[in-house]
């Protein structure tokens, strides 16, 4: 039941669409891993070698899964502050979803061509664009308390903005670094989600921003 | 908990099915983009050329994503007026979903054969049929306040109907124009979602129809 | 919030899983339609001929979509009587989902081999099994009011049972008839969903069974 | 509406993401079953032989579907005790989802290479890892009543832990046994879900652990 007074555009269906797209993209990634056919394999050793050769595809899959999960987590976190949505907010989210749903393509490219600079640039670029759109999502919705419950304190608004922009900028950095060395650009792309997840699960005393901010009503 | 007195057919499961189908179709589009295999590529230049050659597939994907998002948005908007569903309404929605789930096929055709008149006609036809079904959905549900909360004012009912029909008619027009020139038909198909989205996000003083219309109860 | 007193197994997550599987299966069907590549086509006529040759695949897709929608509708209808679930009920539903998720395979077979008796038998058999499991779902849940709100009147219980069994039996009949003539078996498979949907949307005065039966609480 | 006092991270969106991933993985399995093309088949007998040759793929699909359903069931069961989530809990669940979404790959491998020891080890290993992560999920959330409603009695906590660990250990055992005999390892992988499901649906007087434990509030 709506308690926000903004008629017609419900936050819950937008969340449902986004969660659906995240779930599907995270699962489709696995389809890009090509399984050999039993007609091309003769003997244990050949199979073992063939499976070991799949490592770039399996690693790309795991890294993209972790990256998508971190975007899902941040999206989830943002929405916990929002009480409603509006037209522009919906379209910002759809642009974000367009970037997210492109990840299987850039992941498949990475699995096939991880040695090629161009492909590392495409991959890091995809993530940088998704990060910028997630920042825009936050900036738009919290500006003047537009879509939040009672207005997010400026301190919290800035702290979250800095984090989101940092995340996007690290991938822009990876794009730049891959012109110097493809391997370094690639390493940044792999390191970012790993560090992010470690920072999420290891206590580090920097989690304060949420404190004292009322939660958005749910089930609306 | 139902508050509408119509037993047995819940609006929420229909929304869940539709949102699921939209999310999947929007994500499956990306599978139609064929990623080259590393065995066929030798050297940076060849890869760059090969990736540039993918532009019709990438563009078809982006246009179809935008079109599907606009249909999802309009479906979402319609349902915000509805308080319940009934058998016929469910089957109108299923026909609409049949048209929506065909979009990956017409998009793949467009990505491969955008120069062929026949394929532009199929693509525009798919969208025109989806638009007409969305109009039918609205017309059926609002007729005499059949499925709405307290009845939608006739003025609002007509304003929304005109918009939905216009959307469908633009694609019918694109079908016709592609007999004159495939390029023109194609241009209309690309322009329609772009203009629609711009009209959604730029303030233009034509947003009145919702005013004063009670919102349907949610979570039912 | 649970009001049923049966702890631990919520009806809503089971519905969510089932709706998700239905949405995905209905959308995956379309992936079985093979789109030609632009490298194999030269000229308008060849493309037109090639697209016309796709008719068995497109028709199989539309028929399977309608069949799946009718199963979703009936599942939805059954669940509107249920107030809770239990272990066995969950596993009956999972078996039903196994039959539903096999539909893309039998549909792809039908699209390729509609002239072969064996494939019509497989297709009709898939639907007959799904129908029987849906009947079992109903029979188990309503037996002695096991999972229903206040107990379904015996009259209603039987009327719904007869319908569900009839649906399953028509596909068993199609299996039998295809031993006589593949075309007749196929015709029954196509006719059943068409007639079912027409009976849903045309008023025919046989809709009484629901009357007077309390609706299950939702959102639980 | 939240009643738990833990702001920002809702249990319901995590459930939605997980149910979405389960639904998609369970459905994608079927895509790994390769349907022959009508151009390679001539005559009824050849088709019959070709369809019979698909048995390892169909069986792998059915076994994986049952295994995934059992993991979904256990996940569902665990969450019925939880009232909230936190960062680490979300990332444990995402790791679990990573293991689950890898199942289509190990299933496809099994369908192609069920005679190869290495593939049985990969398959059983995938399930063992998923089982261990599900145990971790439970252990973490119930430790000191961290995420549960009023704290789960130690007796219940241990009983569920033993079951989850046993499940994981059976697959570790299957990994070990396949070094002795591939067939035995494979048999254990097939037997485990069958026995598990039978134990779920046949009354056996061992279902007590839930008794007296308050259910988590839903819809939060």
Number of strands of chain A: 0
Helix content percent band of chain A: 55-70%
Helix- and strand-based class of chain A? mainly alpha
Spatial extent as radius of gyration of chain A: 20 Å
| Low-confidence sequence ranges of chain A | 1-6, 205-209
Nearest-integer average pLDDT of chain A: 85
| Residue fraction in strands of chain A | under 5%
Number of domains of chain A: 1
**Order of helix and strand elements from N to C terminus of chain A:** HHHHHHHH
The end-to-end span of chain A amounts to 6 Å
How would a textbook summarize the main sheet of chain A?
none
What is the overall number of helices of chain A? 8
Which assembly state applies to the chains in this document?
homotetramer
Rough outline of chain A: elongated
- Largest interface: chains, residues each: A-B, 40 and 44 residues
Structure at a glance:
The structure is a homotetramer of 220-residue chains. With 220 residues, chain A is mainly α.
Helices and strands in order, then pairings?
Four copies of one chain form a homotetramer.
Chain A: H1 11-28, H2 44-52, H3 55-79, H4 87-101, H5 103-113, H6 117-142, H7 154-180, H8 182-201
Helix pairs in contact in A: 1-3, 1-4, 3-5, 3-6, 3-8, 4-6, 5-6, 6-7, 6-8, 7-8
Describe the structure.
Four copies of one chain form a homotetramer. The first copy, chain A, is mostly helical. The first copy, chain A, has one domain (11-35, 42-204). Chain A is built from eight helices and no strands. Chain A has helices at 11-28, 44-52, 55-79, 87-101, 103-113, 117-142, 154-180, 182-201. In chain A, helix 1 (11-28) packs parallel to helix 4, helix 3 (55-79) packs antiparallel against helix 5 and helix 6 runs parallel beside helix 8. The N and C termini of chain A lie close together (6 Å). The relative contact order of chain A is 0.14. The model of chain A is unreliable at 1-6 and 205-209 (pLDDT under 50). Chains A and B meet through helix 1, helix 4, helix 5 and helix 6 of A and helix 1, helix 2, helix 3 and helix 8 of B.
């Amino acid at each position: 039941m709506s308690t926000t007074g903004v008629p017609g555009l419900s936050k819950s269906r937008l969340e449902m669409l986004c969660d659906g797209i995240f779930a599907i993209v995270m699962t489709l990634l696995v389809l890009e891993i090509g399984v050999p056919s039993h007609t091309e394999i003769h003997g244990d050793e050949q199979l073992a070698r063939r499976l070991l050769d799949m490592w770039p595809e399996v690693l790309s899959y795991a890294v993209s899964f972790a990256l998508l999960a971190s975007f899902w987590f941040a999206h989830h976190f943002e929405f916990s502050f929002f009480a409603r949505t509006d037209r522009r907010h919906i379209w910002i989210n759809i642009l974000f979803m367009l970037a997210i749903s492109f990840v299987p393509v850039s992941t498949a490219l990475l699995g096939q061509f991880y040695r090629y600079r161009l492909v590392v640039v495409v991959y890091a670029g995809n993530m940088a664009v998704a990060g910028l759109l997630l920042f825009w999502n936050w900036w738009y919705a919290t500006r003047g308390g537009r879509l939040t419950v009672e207005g997010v304190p400026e301190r919290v608004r800035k702290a979250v903005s800095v984090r989101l922009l940092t995340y996007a900028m690290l991938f822009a950095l990876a794009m730049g670094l891959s012109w110097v060395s493809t391997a370094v650009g690639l390493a940044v792309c792999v390191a970012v989600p790993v560090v992010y997840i470690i920072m999420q699960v290891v206590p580090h005393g920097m989690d304060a921003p949420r404190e004292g901010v009322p939660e958005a009503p749910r089930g609306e």
